[in-house]
Amino acid sequence: MAREARGPKEGDFITIKSYKHDGSLHRTWRDTMVLKTSENALIGCNDHTLVIEDDGRRWVTREPAIVYFHKHYWFNVVAMIRDNGVSYYCNLATPYVLDKEALKYIDYDLDVKVFPDGEKRLLDIDEYEAFSRRWQYPPEIDKILKANVLILVDWINNRKGPFSKEYVDLWYSRYLELSRHK
User: Fold this and answer.
1) In this predicted model, what pLDDT tens digit does every residue of 84-111 receive, in sequence order?
2) Is 124 labelled as part of a ligand binding site?
3) Using an 8 Å Cβ cutoff, are 37 and 7 in contact?
4) Helix or strand (DSSP H, E) at 136
5) From the centroid of its chain, how far is CA 47?
6) Where does the DUF402 domain lie (predicted)?
7) Annotated catalytic residue: which of 3, 6, 27, 82?
8) To the nearest whole number, what is the mean pLDDT of the chain?
9) Cα–Cα distance between 172 and 7 in angstroms, integer?
């Protein structure tokens, strides 16, 4: 019983739900395998994972991806393992919360994409500005998000955490190992 209260353990599958600032459901990922949980972070893997959009559209992820969530940083990282190298998709979002239903966070529209050659692109600035006006994001949110973009870019430039090849290799190997035992 004590195990359940502490949350998912390595090899368990969880659901991930992203919401918008107004509380509406944005996107759901079913069956993300948990690779590691710690006091502040959760690492998982999506591999041919069912994704359900807010409009009901469904699709399946094409390649394995290591996902990284943290309880103090306002971003999460998806490292997509492709034939031409690792691409990253980073969502500017609230730190995650985990309950019995799912890992949950609020997606704040801005994204940073990192290509296998290291090129970085800040995406969806127009979407962020439109939603910011529509839902009147408080100035503190804007300030926190801008500060976290700087932290994120520093991590990318210095290949810190999920942005290092060793990290992706380690966690993908662990995923393959756990998958063989399922």
Assistant:
1) 999 999 999 999 999 999 999 999 999 9
2) yes
3) yes
4) none
5) 14
6) 22-160
7) 27
8) 95
9) 22
* Residue type at 136 in one-letter notation: Q
What six digits make up the tokens of 50? 């069912």
> 157 among the known binding-site residues?
no
Closest C-alpha to 8, from 89, 90, 70, 98? 98
91 is in an annotated binding site: yes
Q: What angle do CA 63, 61, 10 make, to 5 degrees?
A: 75
Task: Give the pair of three-digit tokens for residue 10.
Answer: 């390595």
DSSP label at 40?
S
SS3 86: strand
pLDDT > 90? residue 34: yes
Work out the widest C-alpha separation in the chain, in whole angstroms. Answer: 49
Residue 174 near residue 100 (C-beta atoms within 8 A): no
The dihedral sign for the CA sequence 172, 176, 178, 182: positive
d(CA 111, CA 90): 5
Phi, psi for 32 (deg, rounded to 5): -85, 125
Assign 120 to helix, strand or coil.
strand
Q: Is the pLDDT of residue 133 over 70?
A: yes
Residue 3 is among the residues annotated as catalytic for this protein: no
Structural tokens at position 22: 């107004």
Quote the tokens at residue 20: 């918008």
